[in-house]
Amino acid sequence: MSLRDHTVQVATMLAVADLDRSLAFYRDRLGFEVREEQPGIALLGHGSMLLYLVADSPPTPDKPGVWLSPPREAERTPVNLVFRVGDCRVVYAELQSAAVEFLTPPRQPPWGGWRCFGRDPDGYLFEIEQP
Fold this sequence. Notes:
Elements: E1 11-16, H1 19-29, E2 33-38, E3 41-46, E4 49-55, E5 80-84, H2 88-97, E6 114-119, E7 125-130
Parallel strand pairs: 1-4, 5-7
Antiparallel strand pairs: 2-3, 3-4, 6-7
């Protein structure tokens, strides 16, 4: 037996400085659906992807000594959310028209395809990737 034999879904959790601001970004600009919302935490879905947004969270009895916090430095992020799409340039244009800011326009990496990167309100990186 392994974890794979018991897993129903996998989700990512991002600690955010302002839950309402991050919720609005993921819902209104990136198209996530709000599945659950409680004080200090929200569960969003985007296709088969699940994303928890949680307000800065101190240690708890089941995670002693661990504090969930957003990134402290804009130049460093522990997470890159990757969205694989059929046409990176089309998605880039659509998101740009929805006021999503990107680091650069789409580019072709040496290994092929297209990709571009943006940041959410807390500085987490997201990537639009066309294989």
